[in-house]
Structures are given as structure tokens and as C-alpha cells.
Design brief:
With about 120 residues, the protein is mainly β. The chain has no helices and eleven strands. Strands 2, 4, 5, 6, 9, 10 and 11 form a seven-stranded mixed sheet that branches. Strands 1-3-8-7 form a four-stranded antiparallel sheet, with no helix packed on it.
Length: about 120
């Protein structure tokens, strides 16, 4: 059973940067699609970024495109999310998710494994 653990969340001022990490245990996700989602209070879970397990393809949500970058280190079983130029609108709990299939997908319903989430708070 794959377990995902997120880390790197915290409090940052607007305009600042943070890097989140998602580390897998109990199995490898080197061939899995891995995505980040976020959920703010009272809002639905939102797609943030995804990296394919088959190709080098990545994709980003419209609200983060150009500011966030997803990357993976298969040797360390880790996927990272570098977040720059943060705004208060980025405040949310960020979740890492992995699916057995390698094809990237933005639909949270197709992901098999989820982390517990890490809080990101951006102050104005």
C-alpha cells in the first residue's frame, strides 16, 4: 500500500515562495502520474499541477500557470511543487495524489492514493 506524505507547507508573505514535497513509501511511484490539488475553506478541491509517469509531460491549473513548477525525483520517490509569487488566493490545504496509471489527469476522482495534506497560508 503506497502512502504519501506532504511536507513544506507554512506561512509566507505575499510575493514569497514555498516548495512542497510529496514522498511515497510502501512502493514506488516512478511510473505513476502524480498530481497536486488544493482546497480552501468552503471551496471545492482544485487541480494545481500534474506530472506524467510515462512522459515528461506536466500540466497546470490556470490560476497557477507560470508561477508553480512541478518536478519529480524518482530516485528519491519524491515529487515537488515549487510555488512562486504567492498571493493570499493561494491559501489552502495542498494535497498530493498518485494514480497507478501513468497518464496524467486533472480529475481528482481517478487518483488512487492521497496524502494527508499540508497547509499553505499566504498573508497580505
Amino acid at each position: 500500500q503506497v502512502q504519501l506524505v506532504e511536507s513544506g507547507g507554512g506561512l509566507v508573505q505575499a510575493g514569497g515562495s514555498l516548495q512542497l514535497s510529496c514522498t511515497a513509501s510502501g512502493g514506488s511511484f516512478s511510473s505513476s502520474a502524480v498530481a497536486w490539488f488544493r482546497q480552501a475553506p468552503g471551496k471545492e478541491r482544485e487541480f494545481v499541477a500534474v506530472t506524467s509517469g510515462i512522459t515528461d509531460n506536466t500540466a497546470y491549473g490556470d490560476s497557477v500557470h507560470g508561477r508553480f513548477a512541478i518536478s519529480r525525483d524518482n530516485a528519491k520517490n519524491t515529487v515537488s511543487l515549487r510555488m512562486s509569487n504567492l498571493t493570499p488566493a493561494d491559501t489552502a490545504v495542498y494535497f498530493c495524489a498518485a494514480r497507478t496509471a501513468g497518464v496524467a489527469n486533472i480529475d481528482p476522482k481517478v487518483y488512487d492514493y492521497w496524502g494527508q495534506g499540508t497547509q499553505v497560508t499566504v498573508s497580505s
